Input
Amino acid sequence: MTLEAFLLLAAALFSVGLFGALSQQSVVMVMMGLELMINGVIVAAAALWYFVSPERPDGQVLVLVAITAMAVEMAAGFAVTTAIFRARDIDMVDAADDLGDRRQEQGQEHGQSREQDR
Amino acid sequence: MAETVVFAVCAVGAVASGAAVFVVDSMARATFALLASFLFAAVPLLLLELSYLGVLVILMMVMEMMVMVVFMIMYMMNPAGLMPMSMVHNKAGSLAVAAVTFAVLAAGVFLVPWPAREGSPPADPTRQLAEAIMGPHMLVMMLVGMVLFATMVASVVLSTPRGRYDRYGDDLKRTRPDDPIGGGLGR
Amino acid sequence: MIEGDASPLSLLTLLALLGALAYAAAAGSAVLHARAVGTAPVAAVSAPARESARLLVQRRRTVPGADALLWRLGGALLPVAAALAALVVPLGSTAVSDLSVGVVWFNAMEVLAWCAVWLLGWGANSVWGLVGGYRFLIQGLSYELPHMFALITAALGAGSLRVGDIVAAQEDVWFAVLMPAAFAVYLVSALAMAFWGPFDAPVGRDAAGGAAAEPSGADRLVLLAGRYMLLAVVAAMAVPLFLGGGAGPLLPGWAWSLVKTLAVLGALVWTGHRVPTVRMDRFTEVGWMVLLPLSLLQALVVSVLVLVR
Output
């Protein structure tokens, strides 16, 4: 077991999570990708604590912060998903791109449910 | 030697089940694949003598995934994967970005001259962590507490469709809240 | 007090003991049932064995569209979770593995029961099963936080997460006396965790057996055995956490551990037969509005005590 092996595992988890977060359309699946990415951070922080400076607690504290970030991400994510589903009947990220410069046909495609709300 | 084997098995298992999350059709299977990935990734933490954080990750992830599975099934069309459908966009692009990210990170892992190890792990890492967050790192703990509390309030506010006017009437004069589901305290 | 036992507890002994305690719980339940319906209570002692034999030879029912992998996983997980949780439970002064984070380990392993029941409900592709699985999740979210605070209060009183240290800290006064509210909350959550007695809604009759509606034959045997094992291990953990572990006059430590475990287990089984099933929506509010503040206050009182002492 070396530091490189642990960091490689962390990098692999992060990349798999990144793929999921970028490619999935469902909000819940995107959150799964984000969780995997944070999991990579946890592994990396723990490995750096053990192999670089085990005498100082900073690495462990970082793991604790990452775990908290994961919990917050999930709670807030599900709350937003619920709110947006209630308001617009949307559960796909493509339909919730209000801040993006939407293409014309996409806007029309999802326009109907929004018209009803307004 | 045994530790290396355990680590290798768990590392491969963690990445493989992590990838399986985005491959399987059934949402229940996807959630439990993610849970398996977290459990596999918790074992390396235990190997690093971080027994508290490792077990904490197991405890938290089991509970978190059991909540997640409810939402997965609630919000996904075709939750059981009985009618396979593709719910992805820009798959090739995402795959390329992920591959490049991994290549860059892996190159960094091997090219960065990591500092040599200073000191050795304490006898009880749990105590080290506890003394840190209750001593010099207390600010972290306080912020984490605040953030978690804010998250609780914010998620309840966001996800509940009913406010106090729905429950207690327009003039808030109702003595018993008008809830669709009653509680156990006779209110 | 805690240096009586010579031989360390082996894994096989532990599993045998766990099985025996689970059988005792099942037999006790059968006897109580026999007394209630007016049949011979003595004959009921062997009822679990007869029922096991019947289930072993019973032909497995198949369900169309079942997710067999997850279903079998859920069934197997229940006894495995109970056995893993039992690893840190000391018999007298020796546990199979007295981890430095024993309390957290116990908690993490017992939470696996959530997975088990939900998977059992989901995998069967049956609406009653799924209703049962969801009920257990709601129940879990209601009992788990008070339960965690009860566990952590005991750890707080001892200043250690190691179960052995918690036992040692009760040399003068049992934690059941020092922190009665935490003990009460623990017992309530113990019933809820093993979905037993008033908390049996996840496998309730109103939902045609809930998560246990579809499993048959050996699957059902594993499910029932796992549930009684869970009940047994939660009862056994109450002894080192709140009842002074193996402390007691005359008898050796392991014997006292067993006697106390049987007493707690008997109380839990008896309660299960005396108290009617509590509805989920009612228990949720009780859990969050009563048990949680109660266990928090108890933790506060104990931490002040620890600081003053």
